Amino acid sequence: MKSINHKITALYCRLSRDDDYNGDSSSIQTQKQMLELFASQNHFQNTKLYIDDGYSGTTFERPGFQELISDIEKGLIHLIVTKDLSRLGRDYLKTGYYLENYFPNHKVRFIAINDSVDSSKEHQEFTPFRMVR
To answer: d(Cα 130, Cα 112) in Å, to the nearest integer?
Structure first.
């Protein structure tokens, strides 16, 4: 198994066609800049971008997300960073599965910057409720 210093910090961006109407704040470019800055400020190294541009958050059959899962299965990733929970997904049950079961079982930390979610912190029990907007 790779040491944590050599594992990937996954920076995940998603923008659906519906989100396009939200303007620049939700654009892929803006998400990339935000995630790269956050990784740099927090000394997260070995970053890799996973991008799903034009894919709905209601499905997890997205090429960038599937590549992310494949890399997790290979033991390559120790941390996933997203702009917010909705970038990971908008299906409450499936998103909850990844946050509560899949990521912890694979020892993957998850951070959603704008929602102040960090799975390494205690008292994150209400995280799933933040997805309901």
So the answer is: 11
Structure letter (DSSP) for residue 55: -
Which pLDDT value is given to residue 17? 74
Q: Identify the DSSP state of 74.
A: T
Distances (CA, A) of 34 to 41, 108, 113, 124: 11, 21, 9, 23
Is 19's pLDDT higher than 80? Answer: no
CA distances from 49 to 21, 90, 96, 100, 128 (A): 23, 20, 22, 23, 24
Set out the domains of the chain in order of their start, with CATH numbers: 8-130 (3.40.50.1390)
Asked if 65 and 25 count as a contact pair (C-beta separation under 8 A), the reply is no
In whole angstroms, what is the distance from residue 127 CA to residue 27 CA? 24
Q: Output the average pLDDT for the chain.
A: 88
Strands 109-112 and 117-118, bridge-based pairing: antiparallel
In contact, 14 and 6? CB cutoff 8 Å:
no
| pLDDT: which is higher, 31 or 4 | 31
CA quadruple 123, 125, 130, 132: dihedral, nearest 10: -170
